[in-house]
């Protein structure tokens, strides 16, 4: 049963990655990037990064172990996932701090 839940998390991570890339590549996303660049706003320029990082964290946390990767590879991807989570937290704090001003 737990392996089914792990595959569900991998699927959810894939959905988040696709959603983040879709936000970046659509015409609305490109317009928001241009508007944010012209007004020097930080948060509007990277709104597509939040779902992308979340999806990559989910993928890196589950997929190598489920595919039977060696212990070193699983440890490496766990470390990369942790770094992505920390970077996401820093970006969210910075975005909220700039939004409050």
From TrEMBL:
This is Uncharacterized protein. The chain crosses the membrane at residues 6-25, 45-63, 69-93. It comes from Streptomyces fagopyri. Keywords: Membrane, Transmembrane, Transmembrane helix. The keyword Membrane applies.
């Amino acid at each position: 049963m737990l392996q089914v839940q792990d595959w569900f998390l991998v699927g959810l991570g894939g959905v988040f990655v696709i959603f983040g890339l879709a936000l970046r590549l659509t015409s609305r996303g490109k317009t928001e990037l241009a508007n944010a660049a012209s007004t020097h706003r930080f948060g509007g320029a990277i709104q597509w990064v939040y779902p992308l990082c979340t999806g990559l964290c989910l993928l890196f946390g589950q997929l190598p172990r489920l595919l039977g990767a060696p212990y070193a590879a699983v440890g490496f991807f766990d470390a990369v996932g942790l770094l992505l989570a920390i970077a996401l937290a820093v970006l969210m704090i910075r975005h909220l701090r700039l939004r409050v001003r």
